[in-house]
Fold each of these.
Amino acid sequence: MQRIGSPPRPLALHGPERSRDIEQRAQARLPPHTLMHRASTAVARLALALAPHAQKVWIAAGAGNNGGDGLGAAIALLRAGKQVQVTLLGDAAKLPVDARDAYSRAQAEGVVIGTQPPATLSPQDLGVDALLGLGACRAPLGRMAELIATLNAVPCPVLAVDLPSGLDAFTGRPLGDSCVRARHTLCLLTLKPGLYTAQGRDHAGDVWFDDLGVDSSNTAPDAWLSSASQTARAQRAHAQHKGNFGNVAVVGGAPGMTGAALLAAHAALAAGAGRVYVSLLDGNDKTAAMTLDSTRPELMFRPAWWLNAPDVIAHCTVVCGCGGGDAVRTVLPRLLSNAQRLVLDADALNAVAADSALQRQLQARAARGLLTVLTPHPLEAARLLDGSVADVQANRLHSAQALSERYRSVVLLKGSGSVIAAPGCVPHINATGNAALATPGTGDVLAGWLGGLWAPDVDGAPPEHELAFNVAVSAAYLHGAAADSAGVTPIRAADLVERLLQPGCS
């Protein structure tokens, strides 16, 4: 068993269909009830570790095998000296075979099994949610919804078995108005993607994992949970110079939004780009244009940089759209035609969504060997997909993959559990970050940081399309890790750039 925080290696995430396949194959080669015995033991062990001073443990058990896991755990907890009360939802005679065996053993052990929750629980006690498992596919109603509401109201921590009841295992969205908010979730056999994206992290709390002694590595995952191991950056050789680390051009910053472009440029510098050019979309009055950032004098301002010769544009990693306003539409055709590595963010994405000609130009880049990373938030993604935010958030993995296929680009769909997708790749869900990032400008920082990581030409790097995907995974991870390490809510975007320079992020 392990606590899953920021994992040291990528972890496979399996949705309901593949999880059931893994379970069925394991049951076929193991003695009867083995998996449920292992699951029950794991639940009891974690319950004792999380609430060692609890006198009472309340287990809300459903009518499926998730309830059977809870009944089996009740036996171990009773033997450990806890006062255990099980509230069983459903007819014991209709329980599945494994759960019915657990029910019979619990009765024989003297576990108190009834239909009502305990009258009182203290803050040091423990509630266990074993109501719904992997098979949940509709909104909890009636008595089920009442028990979920009771679990959410108890004064003590709640441990969810496999999934918080009412949460979709694949998408991370609540199936209805009733969904358990657990302090801890013990995921069993496989890690589920829904625990890490959309509302999953809010409902799951701290996630723990026990594979129950079953190797699932021969089953392709639905997604990967990204890890610190994917953020390794090449050591700088002593004889290298700034020219070895690439050029970044930030194109954005329409009147009144200059700060967005500067935040992206600061982040590109922090990521290690050799040179960073800033080309502001602030009109044609060059006498009024910004020529120096006194806080970062390393930045080089280049009015109308996008009008350079195609080979000059191709030589830079371009970050376009941060604070671009409507003015960004005029520069996109030239950048889409010539930029070898292009990050499109914010207003650049809105411009593409509103212009079919720009969409066709973006879609054509991949066939010409040009690489693009899109960094939309859910509203921008909805515009690009001709849908709604609700559609995007209903299945973030599907939405990110659909975007990547439509525009033949790497997509970094921002939000809780950012999703990184690319055509032909298994998507990644980012393991880091928190609501401290919900402040103005943090997305601009991410775009610039990504551009700065992407800029160097590294010996032995994977093919360009793989490199673009890997850089997006790394940028999202480090961006979130910087917020996790800050201990500040909210975090200001300019401060986030400085956090990115701290050990573990730079």
Amino acid sequence: MSNYFFILGDGDDIRRKVEEYLLSGDLRSLGTFSDALKKAIQDIADAVASTMSAEIIFVGGDDILFKTETRSYNEQQLKTLMTRFAARTGTEISFGVGPTIETAYLNLRRAKSHGHGSLINSNS
């Protein structure tokens, strides 16, 4: 068994929200949403780096990938960060967790299929 978990997150329905602002011509709200999204995803990165000693591999747009030792992984902390993300952006984020990047990706796809704001960790 791996000593690490890979955690992959992706915002839910971000494209739909962006398209809604674009098609209505509401560029001010689009800019506000974009700023909130950047700050919220960076907040997750900063928080997991400090609370889970996570190594941030990728942060961009509404996506994040990080790795942490299994003993440092804190699912409740991640759920709290999901709630904060939703409060800041008005959209939810889903996560997949696994001992390999491939498993984390598959678990993210499973989380997305379960509905918004889901977290799937096949190890728990």
Amino acid sequence: MALDIRLVKLVNGDMVIGKWDLENRKIQDPAILQTVPTAQGEMQMMLLPYGYPFDNDIDGEISIDHVIYEYKSVPEELKTKYLEASSNLTISSASDLRNLENFGNGSGISDLLRK
């Protein structure tokens, strides 16, 4: 079963991404999205645990009753960054896997597995 990751705006104005649990009417493991200006005058997005600075892990839950707006789509890159942050795992793309062919001393990954 794929995780249902959604991006929402709460009634207090916070933009939150998390695992949508409709059965229990909650957003599990919420993370807050904040915009941060850069020195070049651009804006960057920062993903933090919703309970930051008191909680350093992405966990907890928020009732769906506090959602005022749900974004139609969540950019895949944002989903990937959220899943990496909430699971402490790095998610590889297909291009990363293709690069494994050049792994090692010029040999392919299949040669490494045979040893």
Amino acid sequence: MLEHGGRLLRAAREYGRPPEDWLDLSTGISPYAWPVPPIPAEAWHRLPEHDDGLIDAARAYYSTLSLLPVAGSQAAIQALPALRERSRVGVLSPGYAEHAHAWRQAGHRVEPASATELFARASSFNVIVLMHPNNPGGECFSQEQLLGLHASLARRGGWLVVDEAFIDATPEASLCMLPARTGLVVLRSVGKFFGLAGARAGFVSATTDLLVALRERLGPWTLSGPTRHVLKLALADSDWQAQAREQLHAVSTRLSALLGRHGLAPAAGTALFQWCRDERAPLLERALARQGVLVRRFDAPASLRFGLPGDDRAFVRLDVALEHALSGEALRESTR
């Protein structure tokens, strides 16, 4: 199993601090979750049904007819490599490590590379996997860039897989609204923007033949009844979505400014996180954890990802924790 953010209970045990006494900034999940209403009893009692209105709400939200609900984009990430013969796969790096892991586990030849390398050497690959915007590197691409890359792969029977888990705050940049194209696979997640990571739900947009193959691979009832009920409502709540986008952009900008004041000017970011490259990342991670602030550390390159503080009190706590963590004494303690 690869390392991920959100391991709050483990941190609580390691540092001897109860879970409720932490500020968890280790994920890119919005702290402003869509307000889940009471769930009807029949959603728990009956098997899920595919004609319950979820797919209609999803098609309206994503502006496409060609969709398949999945148990989080992670389910599709793990299943897609089994739908191709052995291929040479270029994966954006640094980025969400599960992509490279899944293709490698399925026996494909995987080469992590920067976006510049992947675009320049597209003819070397059968499949290219991009995160857009990237996590944690924040890289973004124009539709023209992505469609040009897709065309060069599709001419040779290749695929372009685009993971749009963090794109909901800038939906105009998504490829979902474009007509389905052979060899183009777009992954969407509801966990980040809607703050519903526990629902384990997402969608795949692709041509019908690929979606049918993926559906057969995943089997029936990929989403539970309660999850389907909640998603149908959340995807249709356009007023909440508009307010959330505005709020996320404002709070992310505020976070970037706070980090900059402490000498940690972000190298990149999205509406849901800020990413700081710093050789002291392991020491800073421990120094912050000693104060009950959990962040996500990356080793290559050495860096920290900060999720969004949810309110003024959380911002004050992060401000104070950074002031202490960056002191010489705190960094020395973190080496012990």
